[in-house]
Write a structure and sequence with these properties.
3% of the residues lie in helices and 32% in strands. It is built from 1 helix and 13 strands, in the order E-E-E-E-E-E-H-E-E-E-E-E-E-E. It has one helix at residues 159-165, and strands at 12-13, 45-46, 51-54, 77-78, 113-119, 137-144, 172-182, 188-195, 199-206, 215-226, 233-241, 244-249, 254-257. Strands 1, 3, 5, 6, 7, 10 and 13 form a 7-stranded antiparallel β-sheet that branches. Strands 2-4-12-11-9-8 form a 6-stranded mixed β-sheet, with no helix packed on it.
């Protein structure tokens, strides 16, 4: 595929000279049906200390015009509405399920979807851009809904790009969500995708393994899902800690959370 635009993610190294690769695959198909015995609800929202949004540098979101706002009643930061218990890493080489933040998250109801995730960005001229002086957490989401959106991709052979290129845009669409900054092993993962009145809401968590790489990068998940009847909005609800979930919407640009929100 010939792309009209290309941009390589400029990456820095924090503690060691670990090589970075755009959207290296770390995951396979999503929508696993290992739901919780205590179904998830979305009540009880709190407000972060500081939130900013920035222009994503793209100006448009392909074939869909998005309002770029969180749904009514959904706060930027709230607590995960299910029980979370961090498993031990003793000894670390024995590992643990890196998706323990998702363990008790409900997997249903969900539309059918598949995902590919990894280090770096799969988008060419939008989304997160590394600023070595920025110690804040950042989030970005967008929808790819039309053949013309293929021009927004990095020119790479990553599995996330391949997933998007294999999309039947007549019946499917793709949600791309990015997080930053830190180890490329802490990739976002989606467990379920719910249809809403105006689009979708994706629920997931960060992977937290026992052993982390020492790179400094953004992290991406590309989620291909069955297109609902209406697709004017998309929200991502990502559990990033035992007591913290971050909500961000496609179309609102880069969301930056200050240290007081972490």
């Amino acid at each position: 595929m010939e792309l009209n635009r290309r941009r390589a993610l400029v990456a820095g190294v924090s503690f060691a000279s670990t090589a970075l690769a755009g959207c290296l695959s770390e995951g396979g198909p999503g929508g696993d049906a290992d739901g919780s015995d205590d179904p998830e609800t979305d009540d009880g929202a709190t407000t972060p200390d500081r939130t900013e949004t920035e222009d994503d540098g793209n100006g448009e979101n392909g074939g869909t015009e998005l309002d770029g706002e969180l749904p009514d009643g959904v706060a930027r930061v709230d607590e995960p509405p299910y029980e979370i218990s961090e498993p031990d890493c003793d000894p670390p080489e024995d590992g643990r399920d890196p998706l323990w933040l998702c363990e008790n998250m409900a997997a249903e109801p969900s539309v059918a979807f598949s995902q590919a995730n990894g280090r770096g960005s799969c988008l060419a001229d939008e989304g997160l851009r590394l600023d070595e002086s920025n110690e804040n957490s950042q989030y970005y989401a967008t929808l790819l809904t039309d053949e013309s959106d293929l021009e927004r991709l990095e020119d790479s052979d990553s599995e996330a790009v391949a997933l998007v290129e294999g999309t039947d845009f007549g019946s499917e669409a793709v949600l791309v969500a990015q997080t930053g900054w830190g180890s490329g092993t802490v990739t976002p993962h989606v467990k379920r995708v719910e249809a809403t009145d105006d689009g979708i809401r994706a629920f997931g968590c960060e992977r937290h393994p026992c052993v982390y790489t020492a790179d400094l990068t953004s992290r991406t998940v590309a989620v291909r899902f069955e297109r609902p009847e209406t697709l004017d909005a998309a929200t991502v609800s990502l559990t990033v800690g035992e007591e913290k979930r971050v909500n961000f919407a496609a179309g609102e640009g880069v969301v930056t959370l200050g240290n007081g929100s972490d």
